[in-house]
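User: quick one, sequence for these tokens?
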């Protein structure tokens, strides 16, 4: 049986999966090939179209509501025992598995764990990394500080800062994204930082920002960006290492505000699932692969044990230990069908609103209205 999978076009998303597939012996009747799509496709491409063409699809958890509505993924409960799923829940860091639970079932295996953290060039900043958003704002008065706002990331930054300020969006009330008071506080901070952010990275996605920081000296700090272990210990001798640490908090003892990312492997309805395929997936999620094989092939594991492993941290500049607390506390986005479209619209609204200096109450009014429409089945989005 030959299977086709789709992942995203970055060493973290592709190399370990491809290397693991290369270990399979086609003579045994089982082979797997992985294709790649750009990060923007991973973030926004309709999941049902991908599932119609691939057996395995690497996806982000906000897509599960859309996937359930389209009926294009197989729930893990149909393929794995309750004991196996419970073990995954215990062994995965933070909400890496629970983020794929929707409508009473799990829809993807937590392959890769990530969340927004702080990235800095330690050689360009004096002293320890800022711990709070007030400290970040103070640093921005004297050092070049960038925000990640391109693509969906303006919305994700907004959500994360709201979580740090004590109001994880749509958690207390699923119909309310954020209160006007907290929303205004978040936009005030974002406007203050965006006004000073270097123009060189304003249109770059997280990969582009981190690559720029590793090669240029005009960005010293990005307080909230998805962590990529590859930039903590770059293979290119000319690249400067990026130091990663926990996301900023509102107060020194507060919650690090960060929106969960990472990836899971979804199994499409078109897939003819065999025991050999399930065993391969079990191996990818097991301790041997997660602590050894995946980090050795540029991947970012989802097992808590890997994030605290001394050898893994020694190889990757302490990236995992320095950011594990943020991942454990990461905020999980809404996952209803319609959220992905809302996220794209909200990002454009926030980004354009900050650039045009729109009144924050107007931005928040539009955000709330668009979020409410995204939750109404059949509403044009």
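Assistant:
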């Amino acid at each position: 049986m030959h299977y086709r999978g789709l992942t995203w076009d970055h060493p973290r998303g592709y190399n370990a999966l491809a290397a693991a597939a290369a270990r399979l012996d086609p003579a045994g009747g089982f082979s797997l090939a992985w294709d790649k799509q750009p990060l923007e496709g991973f973030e926004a491409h309709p999941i049902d179209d991908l599932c119609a063409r691939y057996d395995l699809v690497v996806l982000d958890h906000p897509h599960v509501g859309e996937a359930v509505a389209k009926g294009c993924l197989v729930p893990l409960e149909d393929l794995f025992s309750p004991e196996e799923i419970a073990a995954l829940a215990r062994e995965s860091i933070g909400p890496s598995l629970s983020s794929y639970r929707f409508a009473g079932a799990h829809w993807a295996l937590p392959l890769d764990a990530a969340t927004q953290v702080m990235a800095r060039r330690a050689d360009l900043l004096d002293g320890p990394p800022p711990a709070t958003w007030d400290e970040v704002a103070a640093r921005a008065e004297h050092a070049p500080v960038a925000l990640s706002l391109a693509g969906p990331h303006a919305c994700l930054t907004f959500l994360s800062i709201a979580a740090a300020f004590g109001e994880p969006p749509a958690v207390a009330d699923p119909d309310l994204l954020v209160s006007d008071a907290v929303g205004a506080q978040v936009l005030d901070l974002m406007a203050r930082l965006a006004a000073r952010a270097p123009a060189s990275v304003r249109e770059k996605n997280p990969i582009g920002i981190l690559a720029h920081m590793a090669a240029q000296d005009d960005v010293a700090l990005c307080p909230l960006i998805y962590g990529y272990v590859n930039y903590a210990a770059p293979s290119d001798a000319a690249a400067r290492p990026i130091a990663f640490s926990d996301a900023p908090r509102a107060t020194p003892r507060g919650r690090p505000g960060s929106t969960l990312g990472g990836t899971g492997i979804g199994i499409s309805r078109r897939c003819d699932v065999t025991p050999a395929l399930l065993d391969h997936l079990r191996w990818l999620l097991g301790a041997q692969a997660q602590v050894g094989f995946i980090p050795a092939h540029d991947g970012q594991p989802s097992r808590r044990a890997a994030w605290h492993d001394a050898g893994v941290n020694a190889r990757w500049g302490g990236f995992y230990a320095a950011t594990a607390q943020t991942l454990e506390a990461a905020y999980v986005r809404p996952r209803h069908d319609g959220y992905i479209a809302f996220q794209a619209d909200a990002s454009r609204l926030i980004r354009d609103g900050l650039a045009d200096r729109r009144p924050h109450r107007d931005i928040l009014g539009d955000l709330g209205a668009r979020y409410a429409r995204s939750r109404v089945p059949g509403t044009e989005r």
